[in-house]
Amino acid sequence: MGQCVTKCKNPTSSLGSKSGDKESSSKSHHKKNSGTCGGGGHKEESSSKAPSELSNGTKAVDVALETPVALAVIRDPRKEEHAADRDGLSLLRIEQLFCCYKDEQDDAILEEGMERFCNDLCVNPAEFRVLIIAWKFQAATMCKFTRKEFVEGCKAIQADSLDGICSRFPCMLLEARGEESFKDLYRFTFQFGLDAEEGQRSLQRDIAIALWRLVFTQDTPTILERWLDFLAENPSGVRGISRDTWNMFLNFTQAIGPDLSNYSEDEAWPSLFDTFVEWEMERRKKEEEAQRARDEGEDGWRCTETKSSPGTDRLETTEGSRGSQTWGGH
């Protein structure tokens, strides 16, 4: 990754640019006044030059007026490079890192810059670690980091370089396993998935499915895949996922067991959950009937399949059959 380097012109290059004209005028004035003074006039010229001119011909009054401006603009880049906040982070390095990926027209990192940022971090833009970064940066929109989000996010995770961000991944992943932290991450994910510019208030079904699978990467509830299958197979009945449904699903995974036996429609669950439980129980019933039919078919097949016992004239059923059959014969 190339480093972004900023350059500034030396503001002192224009100081005293007209000093040569002023000097000639001053000397001409002194010669006219000293023409009849002889040596005394020369001494007077020398004494008057000392306080009014510097060795380079620039008048002292010019320096007095322009020097404060120069001092206000000139900075020591070495000191600025190492300028750090109270936590020891280099704010300049954070800003430079942001500039490496920011859009040319917008003061933000957009989709193209985000891809390069993820590539330099050696992460897939669609993986859980990127969601973790977005959460820590408190990003308001997918595929976008504003300057403020990026700078404040780097300060929050205590990193001012790519290596620094990478080194924080283990801690951030561990933090996301905490109950309260995960609840915060989970709620953030819903807001993150909305299109703020379009004023969305609910998640599109396909986006919600992808985000549910993503946010539960580290700790996947047993019922999750059944829930996602239900949403995928009922596109007409699920137009979007509201914030209430999203938040309550986390409570659902924690309060209701995988067998759904303790689910009650009398409790204040969203109506979509009632539909899901009915759908899931019916699916399980059909699956059990199909399995029972398969088992009975296998048992019947075992009862009719026979094999010959070596060295005898007796035929017997295979192991595990319900009974045995023998045919006499000499």
TrEMBL record:
GO terms for molecular function: cullin family protein binding; ubiquitin conjugating enzyme binding; ubiquitin-like protein binding. Residues 1-58, 285-330 are annotated as: Disordered. The keyword Ligase does not apply. GO terms for cellular component: nucleus; perinuclear region of cytoplasm; plasma membrane; ubiquitin ligase complex. Residues 48-58, 320-330 have a biased composition (Polar residues). Its main location: membrane. It comes from the Eukaryota. It is found in: Cell membrane; Cytoplasm, Perinuclear region; Nucleus. Residues 89-281 form the DCUN1 domain. Pfam families: Cullin_binding. Residues 285-305 have a biased composition (Basic and acidic residues). Keywords: Cell membrane, Cytoplasm, Lipoprotein, Membrane, Myristate, Nucleus. GO terms for biological process: positive regulation of protein neddylation; protein neddylation. PANTHER family: DCN1-LIKE PROTEIN 3, RP42 RELATED. This is DCN1-like protein. It comes from Merluccius polli. The gene is dcun1d3.
